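Q&A log
Question type: sequence-to-structure
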Amino acid sequence: MNSSISLENINKLAIPALISGVSEPILSLTDAAIVGNVDFNATEALAAVGIVTTFMSMLIWVLGQTRSALASIISQYLGANNLSEIKNLPAQVIALMTSFSLLIVLLSYPFAETVFKFYNASELILDYCVSYYQIRCFGLPFTLFTIAVFGTFRGLQNTFHPMLIAMIGTATNIVLDVLFVYGIDGFIPAMHIEGAAYASVIAQILMALAALYYLLKKTDIPLRIELPINKEINRFLLMVANLFVRTLALNATLYLGTSFATAMGKSHIAAYTIGINLWFLGAFIIDGYAGAGGILSGKLLGAKAYKTLIDLGNRLIVYGLVIGAFLTIVGFVFYYPIGRIFTQEEAVLNNFYEVFWIVLIMQPVCAVAFIYDSIFKGLGKMKTLRNLLLFATFIVFTPVLLLLDYCSWELHGIFTALGVWMLARSFPLIYIFRKSFKPLA
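Response status: OK
Response body:
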């Protein structure tokens, strides 16, 4: 087997990617844990954080597909030893996506109340959603800048510096969350849910500054925009367009889950917030090895090393299942203490404990889905990912959710539908991958 996919080399990419990957859900989980334990209106504040986090995740995932597309193109050129041909592509991509994110902020800020009414938020929860979002949205351009830089680093087979950047942001957010939400008597006023939003924005700004520094100091990639437009910009935009449609389908799933949970009442949406954010955390932990698969698969495709590519896919299935099983076991061992990290409200905890087991048993399946999802991104097979997620969302998830809601399964129905959705996303990718590349190997 080619040494480039030895466990040591995979871990060299995967472990830093894992650490940097968990920073995104940790930002939201920190907000949820801190806000969920405030002295007044904790359930409403926790519910608002969950609703806004879902919407923010939609924006970040839709616009942040630049990372996967950029990493795929760069890694393929690196594997073919033609990196000089796309040196000016990252600067053009960063300028394009950062400008677009500013437009999103300008359009969404004045209509925040309308947006969150669409999620069935009302009364105090709606007020908290609006105040939290109208602060957090200003971090979006900085986040997308950082994501594009991460894509550049990943294409260059470098996950170490993104890890450092993510650690800076995570540590900053945790410290500032405590200081701003609870305050320090006589020094910093307690700002409740708005404090959590300010903490997140400051952390995102620091991450962007760190990303700028490391890109300029540790790579030969320039940030000045040079003409002509790179020849790969059309392929990049096509990849992003396919991922855009795919991500809309993904977020349709998350919107439906959040909307149905919100309609069930504040204790249900608060419990859903905890569960879905822990699901995200598991996804991003697994994403370390998924990210390594994407990084290496693009490079191997560029080098036309098809046998090694098949071996990589086989290895990563095993690693993913092991990690998924480990997360499941840890979750069951600390089943009840995990819930109490986020809230002390008994109604919320009871709802959460009734469905947390579904989140846990799905972790091995999620691992397979996320790993092959990332491999296909590295290969540039965005159209396949688009079509599969459209199928999983609208032919599988939505009918199952509606049926189980009709049967009054409540949160059990939402998380069961999410589990079936993950099954529909995982095993077809393994079949398509082997059918495509085994003959070439």
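Response note: The chain has one domain: 3-437.
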